[in-house]
Design goal:
Layout: H1 3-31, H2 38-50, H3 55-62, H4 66-78, E1 82-86, E2 94-98, H5 100-120, H6 126-150
Pfam family, one: MarR
Organism: Halolactibacillus halophilus
Keywords: DNA-binding, Transcription, Transcription regulation
Length: 151
């Protein structure tokens, strides 16, 4: 690999680290207005995207221990964000189901995060935004592929 490419990779990694930190900070700031924690936000996000999941599936998605995920779901259930439902095909299986309140909260939070990003990118051209979108999509695909290879 050329020195120029290595230097660019160093800058990309550093920029991504800083961007991640800023997004986490802004995300926590937004969550202060809601009755959910960051781990709950992540869990609700997965349930919105994937639909009903078992505790095991959810714990794998959010990278938390099974017992920690159970406690997390207990708190979300208490706040009427989710409910446990028996699987219709196999009554032994219990799935976590996103309730209307949970869906509304997660959609509002995501919308506020998107508004923040729109404010940050407001003076970029449509072509630059589309280019950034494409680059991020390719990077995500490559990272997901790499993760699959390592599992």
């Amino acid at each position: 690999m050329e020195t120029e490419s290595i230097d660019a990779i160093v800058r990309i990694e550093k920029n991504m680290r800083y961007i991640n930190g800023i997004i986490k900070h802004k995300g926590r700031e937004i969550l202060k207005n809601y009755c959910i924690t960051t781990p709950q936000f992540i869990a609700l996000q997965w349930l919105l995207e994937e639909g009903d999941l078992t505790i095991g599936e959810l714990s794998n998605k959010i990278n938390l221990a099974f017992s920690t995920t159970t406690d997390l779901v207990d708190r979300m259930e208490k706040n009427t964000l989710v409910e446990r439902k028996r699987d219709t095909k196999d009554r032994r299986v219990v799935r976590i189901h996103l309730l209307i309140k949970g869906k509304e909260i997660i959609q509002e939070v995501i919308e506020k995060r998107q508004q923040y990003l729109a404010e940050v990118l407001y003076d970029m051209s449509t072509a630059d935004i589309n280019g950034l979108d494409e680059t991020m999509r390719v990077l995500l695909e490559k990272m997901q592929w790499q993760k699959e290879q390592n599992n």
